Amino acid sequence: MPAFPARQLRRPEPPPGKPRPEPQGDDQLERLKRVAAEPAAPAVSRVVIAGIVRAIETALIALTGAAVYFLYIVRNVGAQPGYLAVTIGVAVMSIVVFQSLHVFSVPAFRNPSRALFRIAGGWSLAFLVVFAGMFFLKFNGALSRVWIATWFLVGFGAIAIERVLLAQFVALLVGAGRLQQRAVIVGGGAIGADLLRELAKNDESEVQMLGVFDDRSDERSPDTVEGYPKLGNVDDLVEFARSTRLDLVIFALPITAEQRILQMLRKLWILPIDIRLAAHANRLRFRPRSYSYVGKVPVLDLFDKPIADWDIVIKQAFDKSVGALALLMLAPVFAATALAIKLDSRGPVLFKQKRYGFNNELVEVYKFRSMYVDRLDPTAAQLVTRDDPRVTRVGRFIRKTSIDELPQLINVVFKGDLSLVGPRPHAIHAKAADRQYDEVVDGYFARHKVKPGITGWAQVNGWRGETDTQEKIQQRVEHDLYYIENWSILLDLYILAITPMSLLKSGNAY
Predict the structure, then answer these.
(1) What are the structural domains of the chain?
(2) What is the CA radius of gyration of the chain?
(3) pLDDT score for 198
(4) What SS3 class is residue 388?
(5) 3-class DSSP state for residue 389?
(6) 367/347 Cα distance (integer angstroms)
(7) According to the model, what pLDDT value does residue 418 have?
(8) 376 contacts 437 by C-beta, under 8 angstroms
(9) Are the C-beta atoms of 450 and 312 separated by less than 8 Å?
(10) pTM of whole model > 0.90?
(11) pLDDT tens digits along 74-97
(12) CA nearest 508: which of 450, 468, 451?
C-alpha cells in the first residue's frame, strides 16, 4: 500500500494580480499525475540503519567474548573480572576500527563478502593490539590463549552470519525503495542532462530519480532529459511534493544564476525536503569539506529537512512514551471532563476537526466538545471570541485551561499524526482579520515542515487563542519557525515543563 496516497494534483493558482503562467500541456500534467500516483513506501534512514548495525555488532562481539568467558574461564578457573573489562575494550576498539574501514554503509551491507574481508582485517588488528598490550605491559599469561583464540573464531563467525542476514534484509529494503531518496532535478538544460548521466554511473545509487522540473518552456528545456520526463515548473513541484513522497531536490543550475535560484528557493523552502545545488559543473571550487555528495556527485547544501535520521527516532520515541504516560496519569481528568460535558449539554463528548498537518496533509484531530452541538464549526470559519454564545459553560472553562486539547494525546500515541510539541495545527479555514493565514504571512506553510503538536513554542510565549489581528498570526508563525530551526529534545522538554504555567498566564483563549 502506498504510504503517501496521491492527492488531487492541479495547477496552482497564481497570486492575486499576477498573470496565469502559460499552459504546459495536458500531456505534461498527465505525466505529473502518473508519477505522483506511483506507490511510495516510507523511507528508512541509512544513518539509522548504520547506527543499529554498529550497536548490534558491538553487542555481538561483547556477548561472544562473555559467553566464551563463562563457558571456559569461569568453569575451569573461576571468576576473573579482568576478562570482562578486556571484552568491553575489544568490542569498542573493533567498532572504531570497522568504522575506519568504511564497512557501515549500505553498499557494504549489500556486499557482505567484500565487507567481511575488511572486517577480518580489522578484527585481527584488534586482537594484535591485545597481544601487543600483553607483551609490552608484561602481562604474559594474564589472559588465556584458548579464550582469545576461541573468541576470535566465534566472534568473527557471529559477525559473518549477521552480515549475511543483513544483506538479505537490506536487499528487501532496497527492492521496496525504502533506502533510496526519491529525487527530482530542477533545471532541464545541459547541466541537468550531465548531472543525470553522472548519477547513472553510480552502481549503488542512493536516489530514485522521478523527473525534471523547469520554469523555462522553450527549446532549452526539452520534454525529456536523459530519458526522464519534464513534469512541470516549480509551482507544480510544490504541489507534487505534497502529493507523494519526495526527499530531495537537486538544482542543476550554474551557481552564477543567483536570482533564478533565489526565486525558486522562495517557493520551495516551505517543503520538508533536502535541497541541494549540484556543483559538478561549476568552475568555482570550494574546499572539499564544503561539499556533501549525492552518490559521487558533489553538491552544496541549501536546505535540510529540519528533523531527520536519529532526530526522528528520538522524537517519535519521546512522543509515544511520554504521551502514553500522560494518557494514564490524566485518565481521571478525562473522565471528569467527559461527565461535565454530558451533564452540561446534549451531544457527543468528543469533537473531530480537520486541520493542516505535516507537509500540508489534512489530519483529523480530537478535542473535547466545547460548543453546543447545533453550533459546531468544524472548519473554524468563524473565530471564537470572548463570551461567544456558541460556547457552553463547561466549554469556556476547558478552552481557557486547554483541557479541550487533551484528547489529542490519542492522535500522538495511536494515530501518530501529531507530536507532543510542535506548531499547533490550524483549522482549514482559520483566518486572521478576515484573511486566510497563508495570505497574511509570507512563508506560512513552512510551519508544516514538521508534525504539528499539542503545545508549542508560540503557545508558551503567549501566542495562543484568538487570532483577530495579523500581528498575532505573524508572531505565532515566527515562533513556530524558530522552534523548527532550533529543535532539540531538550527544547521539547522545556516547552512541556512550562506549558502548565503559560496556561495560567494566557488571557486571550476563549
Answers:
(1) 26-40+180-303 (3.40.50.720), 46-175 (no CATH), 310-505 (no CATH)
(2) 28
(3) 86
(4) coil
(5) coil
(6) 14
(7) 95
(8) no
(9) no
(10) no
(11) 888 888 888 898 899 999 999 999
(12) 468
